[in-house]
Amino acid sequence: MGNDNTAGGYSFRYSTTISSNTAAKNAIQRALQTWRCAALINMITAATPTETTCAANDNINILSFDNNCTLPVGTLGQTTRWYSSCTNGDKYIIEIDMLFSTAVTWNYGPGATPAANKDFESIVVHELGHANGQGHVLDYGKLMYPSLVSGVDIRQIDDDALTCAHIALAHSAQNNGCTGGSYQPNTSACGIRARIKVFLQGPYNTTTGLMSTTLGSVIPTAQPFNRVPWLYTGTETFSALPTNTTDWVLVEARSTLNGAPIERRAALLRNDGTLLATDGAIGVPFTDLNPYMPYYIAIRHRNHLAAISKNAITLPNAAALDFTQAANIHGSNQVALMSNGKYALYSGDFIANGIINISDYNLYATQIGSAPNQYLDGDCNLDRNITIADFNQYRPNAAVIGVNEIRY
Hints:
Collagenase (Catalytic Domain), about 15% helix, elongated, alpha/beta, five-stranded mixed beta sheet, 2 domains
């Protein structure tokens, strides 16, 4: 890759076939953000659209539907790269044109894709893989697999694609004698996403392997950690609750195990354990962390015992940091072993200070019998009600003590 736009990378222009389609443009922006933040790929969109709608070596990087130059039957997207030679014999990309089919019914997201639709964002993320030099792979379910099943979303960059992108970026950033200068990694404030998986014991169902989503509409639209003991002043909010959300969690990134957090972020917890940004995108977006640096990650919840990672992980990470495996967590007996072999954060830390004891029971006792359908800390199974079921969650965990690094 090269410095095509004098800003270190490439600028795409929407063709008139896309420029009026807001949903399509939003999906494209999410896909570009995914690559910029996960792999530091330096690709953006320009403000001015173009009348060009077909792939041609004309010094315009286009994003277009195939209205005027139909793609082959069954082809959902197609990327054409144009090359020039460097003085050392390498070749670098001087233009990238991307076309998308009009012969299918697209889901533009960000919600899940209906069974009969193809997911547009997934195809854009895939084609952007081609844009940074990647070919197809034969592993079904991978981002760069050459086909996408209806009703399926593959919007994230897997380990293989991320590794290839890092190799391409490192080589492209060298001074290869290419006209216009060397490619530069993205340095915009898009943030770094941490991929994390965690279960909460209270709402976890060992049969389905999922947590409940019963809280639903009582989950506050603004993060709930702006009070004792967290005193978190973040402004995270959501306008539409992402599908299958269980609750909010608070995530901390630290440079040392026992050091103060460098940055904290509130995130939404999906019922399969995946942490989401407030727009439903996978991963917790941090803005103050340095890319490709190691960080310890702590997870906090309103009424479950917090936990912190055993090791520092390099961010951004392609494979999720998995708190459902005790081997990844600092300290012994810091997570509850569920009957299906998974681990979950202990329920019953109602005052969230890192120790489950009589103080937690006292809070529960003041809230038992409260009117139903509320968002209360005494509700540790997250069913909108405070009943004996919550006490039954608390009782076996009484006397569990969190490691010093997570206590308030």
